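Course assignment 3, question 2. Fill in each field.
Student: A.L.
Task: Predict the tertiary structure for the chain below.
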Amino acid sequence: MLSPEVIDAAEKLWNYHHMHHELKLSDCILALGSHDLRVADRAAELYLEGFAPLLIFSGGLGNLTSDIWTIPEADQFAEIAIKKGVPSNAILIENKSTNTGENIQFTQRLLAERGLHPSRFILVQKPYMERRSFATFKKHWPEKELLVTSPQFSFTAYPTKDISLEKVISIMVGDLQRIKFYPAKGFQIPMNIPDDIWTAYELLLSSGFDKHLAKI
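Answer field:
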């Protein structure tokens, strides 16, 4: 299943999903919850490096965590950040959202309730969800400046015993499908998909990496 052709196609998707943004000092760090706790580590490190004075964790229990956890993603992420030295009074928690769109919409509501209006965000997400998170954020909050980053791992170094390479590839395939078709549903802004990336997607799909496709 993991032939050289599959690995090559998967690495093309991995590179495409990255936004390759250069980070700048910002008003807020927004970390989107998931099954990958390393996102919390990355967000906490950026706060401790002084990139922003406010750290928001957004995430309840979603598609990848509702079957494995009972504690909301955002609460677990916040606990990790506090253990790394982030003061609790610099953290806001949104722990009801179940997908990327809700992450953004519920965070908007949370900030509005507190009278906070950050202009520039650093959004922290899994490496292979950078682009879709960018497209979703800009659909719901186009007037905000957005930089996206993720845990700093190469494609081959990223998998763990709990997050297998096969699972990563399936999720990347599902995310590319969403990038292609979600703009028509009003969920995201359109993003250009080069022909070679779509060809790699089709190869992976035909190779059985279809476990995380959306019902379009």
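Instructor remarks: The chain is about 45% helix and 10% strand. The longest helix spans residues 165-185.
Grade: pending
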